[in-house]
């Protein structure tokens, strides 16, 4: 056996060739042939599609164009190119230029950043100090205003009005007040003068007369009658710097009578604030200036001048920054020469409300000192990069030269091994290989060719190829032209057709696949042919098995009733089985290209998530999902996804099997529906039984009391109402049983008018008065064959629905009863009704109406548009079921926003049929008797009532609460009793068991079973036991009396 594994072998640097790696089992493996550089991949027709052609590779191996020959030519001609040092030098120069250019622009960027940073700092400080100065000025003016208008005003008015004038007693009080304020507000002095400038009071005792420089301030105060902030001045008396703020003192009529002046020393706060600077800056300075007589006057101490405030003056033309600021009349950032003729960066802005100019500045040398430091760092970095580039270029050149030498050495070694590799490839390949010369004579044969032809290489060399390689067509048995001659003629690769057989020397016949390729020299001239062929016997066997398996698999897929889809790794459909088309409706031609219309839009994301999960985990996924068929119907599906992989473990696709669960889901819903109804029925049955047991004594005792009550008395009327109420309660129980489908439906002739009126009266009392209700009933009696309780339920449900439609908006409800005649071929809403006379009940409302989109669904069980908890969705479904069961039909007309009308059609009875009469509690002529009755019931109120009722009818009654005790008495003397009346549900022995025991003792004993719920024992079961009649609770006296006589008469007859 031979086996090969695909591998990749590097024959030489920069040249990769695919090869087969020899696996154990080859019987003629040459020595030192561990790897063969020839790729051979064959299918039935010679070689795989897209795979390297083994014949062409073999031809190249023996051609002068083989990479081994090319290396030889390259080495012999010494045309190996060497990298130039000039290019390396150019690269270094270019790199250096780029580094220097980048460093220069980086330096400029750093300069802009630093300047911007310092400019922001200067502007922030200037804005802060300007605001502080403004606040300080405002505070001083507020102090002057407060003192001139406060209590001092009152004292000054009193002093000026006094005959003593300035020597009045108030003077001392004023002085104390002024002294207090000077001490606490850090003022230099407070002065009170008259309007002429005469000094009245001064906190500073050294001031005897008002200085001349203050008189202009007094005059401005007198003229403006407002608070005046004076300039920073040099005092003529003490030769000190001060700032005066003054305001008028007004009399009671608002006229000025004096001036109050507050004097501050700017050295206390203003000058220190100006001198302060946040952080450390040797050249930063803030100064105040004003323009006076064409000169720039410094109002504070200058950092670089020793003059006192107001002493430093400079012409505007000599102060570059102030001159530019005045020319532009705009506050902001300026760069120029300051009072020292030093280049600075300054912020200049005015102080609002004054003629002061605030200048905040910093020397440009200080601003750019940090830039110079950063520039040095940038320069050093650029220099280091250039040096590194030079070193790297030198090392690279050295490495390239060294690699060049090593490449020459490797080329030489490869050339020495070339012949050995060719021989190993030729003799180690797993296919048969024969080479010929241009004459078609054999030059070489490998061991595989020897085995397949039956000739040894020694025997075959020099012989014509046609003698060694004898091939025929498998089907026609005709000789096939040898491909070698075609290759020699055309110079291209030639392959044999399918069904070619090789006949060996000993006559053995083998199917083969072969092809030939030319061998060329350095000039491209054909010097021979290489023929490659392979035995396909085993492959044919594999192919046949594969075809059989494929046919079997296709038959299985065709037989599967579930849709199956095969996807590729990108979820594009590749195959579907017939069941897919049958269930979902699409053919394969319609989904070619990746379309998946059977997956709903809301399921697309989940489909791809499941695909990703399956490929990541590698496990088969099973989950429920939804798909839609070609008609747009949504189907519940059980999906099963299974991935498949290629030989390398990469996912190539997956198969999806879909099982239709739609019918199963519907059956599950039906089962749940049945279980719900069963539970409701069980609950209703229990309620009905207990409620009937409660109603029975109330109804019976009330009826007996009516017999004894005086006629036309109030008592009789009250008892009649109680009796009617018990009958309505009994009807209500019957409605519950009808709803739960546990009550036996008895159709009797019924007159509709009383039922319609009773329902209208009942609902009118429960529906709010703001809802208008109208009743329109045809006077002629209308009879139908129906169960009265069911009719009552139909009317109640329809009126309740109408009330819900107008509950919040108000409106009207109309109930109508009339006779209608349907002609032939006329349909109502659903199936056609036979022509004839019908009772038409119409319930209308003026509510919101029903959306036409859901009008067809309103009669479906559990369908409701009401809020959660408001309705069950069973009302209209029950109505539809009852009407249909009675042989009628119901239809609905609705106008969105304008109301709804329900039409109920019921077949009319012929005139001679009579309707059921209403129960009455009035005394009637009821039949009685004298027989002895055995009465059994576990409810004492019931048995007492029944005993009194029967005894009143003339019967002898023996009553028992215990069924076992009753059976004991009956067993003692079965002939003693003429009738047994027993309840069905008894604690120790059920009524039906009591009946069985009694009948076993006396088969002809008549038995009546009373029960609050007749479904627990049907009439057929009762008759099978021997029970003569079933009496549903609650019973009236008339019904019980008639039933007893009927049973006794049937027994006697």
From TrEMBL:
TM spans, by residue?
A: 87-107, 376-397
Pfam families tied to this protein: HATPase_c (PF02518), HisKA (PF00512), PAS_4 (PF08448), Response_reg (PF00072)
Residues in PAS domain copies:
418-491, 549-593
Q: What is its EC number?
A: 2.7.13.3
**In-chain residues carrying the UniProt-annotated modification 4-aspartylphosphate:** 983
Ranges for domain Response regulatory come to 932-1048
Catalytic activity reported: ATP + protein L-histidine = ADP + protein N-phospho-L-histidine
Ranges for domain Histidine kinase come to 686-910
Q: Which UniProt keywords apply?
A: Membrane, Phosphoprotein, Transmembrane, Transmembrane helix
MF terms in GO: phosphorelay sensor kinase activity
Q: Which InterPro entries match?
A: CheY-like_superfamily, HATPase_C_sf, HATPase_dom, His_kinase_dom, HisK_dim/P_dom, HisK_dim/P_sf, PAC, PAS
Where is each PAC domain found?
496-548, 621-673
What protein does this entry describe? histidine kinase
């Amino acid at each position: 056996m031979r086996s090969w594994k695909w591998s990749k072998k590097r024959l030489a640097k920069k040249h990769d060739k695919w090869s087969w790696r020899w696996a154990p089992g080859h019987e003629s493996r040459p020595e030192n042939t561990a790897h063969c550089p020839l790729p051979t991949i064959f299918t039935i027709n010679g070689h795989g599609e897209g795979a390297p052609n083994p014949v062409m590779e073999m031809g190249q191996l023996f051609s002068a164009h083989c990479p081994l020959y090319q290396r030889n030519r390259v080495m012999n001609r010494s045309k190996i190119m060497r990298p130039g040092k000039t290019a390396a030098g150019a690269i270094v120069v270019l790199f250096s230029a780029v580094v220097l250019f980048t460093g220069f622009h980086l330096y400029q960027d750093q300069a802009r950043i630093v300047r911007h940073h310092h400019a922001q700092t200067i502007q922030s400080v200037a804005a802060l100090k300007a605001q502080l100065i403004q606040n300080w000025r405002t505070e001083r003016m507020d102090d002057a205003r407060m003192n001139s208008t406060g209590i001092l005003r009152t004292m000054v008015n009193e002093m000026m009005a006094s005959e003593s004038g300035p020597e009045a007693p108030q003077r001392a009080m004023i002085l104390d007040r002024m002294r207090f304020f000077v001490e606490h507000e850090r003022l230099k002095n407070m002065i009170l003068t008259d309007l002429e400038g005469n000094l009245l009071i001064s906190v500073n005792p050294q001031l005897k007369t008002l200085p001349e420089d203050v008189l202009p301030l007094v005059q401005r105060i007198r003229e403006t009658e407002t608070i005046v902030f004076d300039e920073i001045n040099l005092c003529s008396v003490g030769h000190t710097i001060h700032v005066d703020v003054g305001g008028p003192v007004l009399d009671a009529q608002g006229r000025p009578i004096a001036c109050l002046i507050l004097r501050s020393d700017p050295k206390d706060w203003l000058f220190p604030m100006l001198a302060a600077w946040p952080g450390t800056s040797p050249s930063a300075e803030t100064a105040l200036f004003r323009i006076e007589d064409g000169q720039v006057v410094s109002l504070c101490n200058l950092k670089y001048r020793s003059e006192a405030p107001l002493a430093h003056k400079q012409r505007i033309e000599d102060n570059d920054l102030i001159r530019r600021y005045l020319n532009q009349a705009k506050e902001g950032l300026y760069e120029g020469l300051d009072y020292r003729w030093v280049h600075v960066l300054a912020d200049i802005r005015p102080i609002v409300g004054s003629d002061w100019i605030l200048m905040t500045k910093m020397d440009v040398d200080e601003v750019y000192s940090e830039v110079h430091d950063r520039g040095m760092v940038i320069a050093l970095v650029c220099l280091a990069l250039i040096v590194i580039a030079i070193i790297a270029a030198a090392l690279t050149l050295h490495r390239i030269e060294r690699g060049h030498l090593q490449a020459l050495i490797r080329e030489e070694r490869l050339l020495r091994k070339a012949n050995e590799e060719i021989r190993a490839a030729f003799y180690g390949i797993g296919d048969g290989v024969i080479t010929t010369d241009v004459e078609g004579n054999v030059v070489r044969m490998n061991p595989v060719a020897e085995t397949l032809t039956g000739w040894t290489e020694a025997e075959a060399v020099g012989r014509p190829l046609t003698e060694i390689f004898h091939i025929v067509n498998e089907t026609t048995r005709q000789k096939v032209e040898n491909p070698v001659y075609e290759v020699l003629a055309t110079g291209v690769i030639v392959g044999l057709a399918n069904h070619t057989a090789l006949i060996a020397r000993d006559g053995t016949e083998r199917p083969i696949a072969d092809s030939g390729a030319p061998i060329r020299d350095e000039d491209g001239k054909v010097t021979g042919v290489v023929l490659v062929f392979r035995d396909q016997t085993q492959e044919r066997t594999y192919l046949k098995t594969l075809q059989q398996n494929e046919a079997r698999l296709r038959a299985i897929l065709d037989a599967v009733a579930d849709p199956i889809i095969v996807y590729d790794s990108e979820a594009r459909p590749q195959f579907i089985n017939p069941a897919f088309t049958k269930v979902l409706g699409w053919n394969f031609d319609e989904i070619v290209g990746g379309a998946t219309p059977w997956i709903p839009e809301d399921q697309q994301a989940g489909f791809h998530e499941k695909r990703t999960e399956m490929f990541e985990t590698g496990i088969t996924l099973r989950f429920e999902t939804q798909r839609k068929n070609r008609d747009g119907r949504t189907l519940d599906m059980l999906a099963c996804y299974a991935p498949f992989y290629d030989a390398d473990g990469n996912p190539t696709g997956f198969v999806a099997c879909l099982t239709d669960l739609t019918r199963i889901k519907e059956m599950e819903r039906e089962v749940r529906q049945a279980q719900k109804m069963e539970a409701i029925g069980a609950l209703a049955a229990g309620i009905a039984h207990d409620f009937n047991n409660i109603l029975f004594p109330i109804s019976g005792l009330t009826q007996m009391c009516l017999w004894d009550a005086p006629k036309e008395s109030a008592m009789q009327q009250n008892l009649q109402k109680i009796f009617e109420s018990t009958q309505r309660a009994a009807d209500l129980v019957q409605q519950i049983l009808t709803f739960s489908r546990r009550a036996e439906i008895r159709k009797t002739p019924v007159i509709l008018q009383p039922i319609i009126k009773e329902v209208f009266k009942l609902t009118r009392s429960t529906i709010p008065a703001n809802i208008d209700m109208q009743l329109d009933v045809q006077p002629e009696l209308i009879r139908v064959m129906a169960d009265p309780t069911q009719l009552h339920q139909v009317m109640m449900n329809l009126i309740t629905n109408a009330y819900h439609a107008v509950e919040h908006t108000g409106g009207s409800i109309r109930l109508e009863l009339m006779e209608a005649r349907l002609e032939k071929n006329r349909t109502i809403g659903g199936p056609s009704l036979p022509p004839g006379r019908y009772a038409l009940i119409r319930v209308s409302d003026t509510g919101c109406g029903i959306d036409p989109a859901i009008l067809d669904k309103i009669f479906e069980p559990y369908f409701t548009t009401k809020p959660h908890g408001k309705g069950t969705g069973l009302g209209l479904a029950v109505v539809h079921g009852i009407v249909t069961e009675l042989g009628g039909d119901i239809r609905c007309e609705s106008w969105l926003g304008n109301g709804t009308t329900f039409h109920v059609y019921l077949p009319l009875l012929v005139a001679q049929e009579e309707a059921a009469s209403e129960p009455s509690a009035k005394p009637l002529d009821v039949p009685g008797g004298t027989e002895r009755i055995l009465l059994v019931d576990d409810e004492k109120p019931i048995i007492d009532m029944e005993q009194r009722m029967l005894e009143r009818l003339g019967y002898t009654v023996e009553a028992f609460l215990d069924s076992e005790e009753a059976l004991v008495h009956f067993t003692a003397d079965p002939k003693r009793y003429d009738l047994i009346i027993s309840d069905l549900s008894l604690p120790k022995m059920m009524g039906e068991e009591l009946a069985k025991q009694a009948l076993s003792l006396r088969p002809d004993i008549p038995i009546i079973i009373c029960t609050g719920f007749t479904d627990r024992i049907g009439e057929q079961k009762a008759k099978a036991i021997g029970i003569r009649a079933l009496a549903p609770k609650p019973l009236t006296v008339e019904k019980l009396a008639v039933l007893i006589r009927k049973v006794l008469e049937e027994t006697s007859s």
